[in-house]
Design a protein that fits this description.
heterodimer, A: 39 residues, little secondary structure, 0% helix, 8% strand, B: 221 residues, alpha+beta, Glutaredoxin, 4-stranded mixed β-sheet, 9 helices
Chain lengths: 39, 221
């Protein structure tokens, strides 16, 4: 599977203030700038 | 005849907002006049969580978020109330907090066998409503079998981690897209919607994407 090299220019829709994404459900995994693989 | 509208959804199977967002998105699909193909992409919210977390979801939230147990309980109560408003029953008193990487591998297995959407719903209901464990291979194989997937093939895929590269690729794609929370919906590789937004938002996005596609000049195929 290939991975796009750069973010696509999404047009974000919806109300940012209405994003029901808070609490633990929206925690990001630890940053992995060099590699996204898991051991 | 137009091709279906493509929707890619990054989410996790122990993400309460993802299940709520799924219901809101499905409500939009019921009103949308057109075909849609949905693909679930993997997003591990907490890849460092052990398969058998020693404690309740409130304990987990309290530790992870650095909030008091009372505040964690308030978070759980709030999201449970919102879930109820879209017809979902969350039973946090039964939930087994776990690691979801195997569940994501199984979702890719299900995708390869044409049953990803069914498995996604089965896993979410098992986790939030039924209090079933979704972090262990044996439990996952049982759930796969319940929706008609081949148990033996599923067990082999999990044991051999056949689909782990696909899980990692989804995570890498999420990072590349700058996705910072889930659920995250990408429509026709053109529009992004973050969070469990209202059904009207999803419907408007689908309608807009379909109108723009239909208005575009036909390309030789």
């Amino acid at each position: 599977m290939t991975v796009d090299a750069a973010p696509k220019p999404f047009a974000m829709l919806g109300d940012p203030a209405a994003e029901a994404c808070e609490g633990d459900s929206c925690l990001l995994p630890p940053p992995a700038p060099a590699s996204t693989t898991q051991d | 005849m137009s091709n279906p509208i493509d929707v890619q959804i990054w989410s996790d199977v122990q993400c309460p907002w993802c299940y709520i967002g799924k219901r809101k998105f499905e409500a939009a699909l019921e009103q949308f006049d057109g075909e849609v193909t949905v693909t679930y992409r993997s997003f591990e919210l907490a890849p460092d969580t052990p398969v058998d977390f020693d404690g309740s979801p409130v304990d987990y939230l309290s530790q992870r978020k650095g909030v008091t147990p009372e505040q964690a309980q308030q978070m759980v109560d709030r999201v449970s109330g919102i879930a109820q408003s879209v017809g979902l029953e969350y039973h946090y008193d039964r939930i087994h907090q776990t690691n979801t990487v195997l569940a994501h591998e199984l979702l890719h297995f299900a995708k390869a066998h044409g049953k990803q959407v069914e498995l996604k719903e089965r896993l979410l209901r098992a986790y939030f409503t039924e209090g079933r464990h979704i972090g262990r291979a044996d439990d996952l194989v049982e759930l796969a079998g319940e929706i008609g997937l081949d148990r033996e093939a599923a067990a082999t895929a999990l044991a051999e981690h056949t689909y782990l590269p696909d899980v990692k690729a989804d995570m890498a794609q999420a990072v590349a897209y700058g996705i910072q929370g889930v659920p995250f919906f990408v429509i026709e590789s053109k529009y992004g919607i973050s969070g469990a937004q209202e059904s009207a938002t999803f419907l408007a996005a689908l309608t807009q994407a379909a109108a723009e596609r239909d208005a575009a000049p036909l390309e030789a195929s």
